[in-house]
Every structure is written in C-alpha cells, then in structure tokens.
Give the backbone structure.
Amino acid sequence: MTDRFEGLVDHLLNGGISLAEATQILEHSMIRGALARSGNNQCAAARALKMHRNTLQRKMVEYDLGRRKPMARVTRRQKKKSA
C-alpha cells in the first residue's frame, strides 16, 4: 500500500499539483467513496471517515456532494406602520 501511495505522490508532483489541490482531491474522493459504500448513509460514512457527521455535511456542501445548505426560514411579513 505504501508503495502505491508513494507512486501517487510522485505522479502528483510530476503533474504540478499543489499540496492544497492534492488534499482537496483526496478528501473529495474519500468522502464520495464513503458515501457510496454506505449507501449514502451520512452517519455510517462519517464513522468510516472518523469525522463528525456535521463536519461531513459541511464538506458535502463544500464539494457539492448532494447535501444543500439549509434554506433560510421564511418569516411572516410585518405590517407596515401607517404614517
């Protein structure tokens, strides 16, 4: 496994991929894979990734992986004050 990972590192470095880009690629892929393996069960995916479910949901929004930001609450209109 270590040899394969070292090969991947060499490939990324030769491709001019920055550490930040590589981190995003790995994180996105691992989250997508954990969700697929768990049948999109966020609790199970978060356990597999050893992260809190809220962190997983935040990263799902960041990587556009099916979870949307909650919509703002609709408030009742306030009556206009008469002059």
Q: What stands out?
A: Residues 19-37 form the longest helix (19 residues). The mean pLDDT is 87. Helices lie at 2-14, 19-37, 42-49, 53-62.
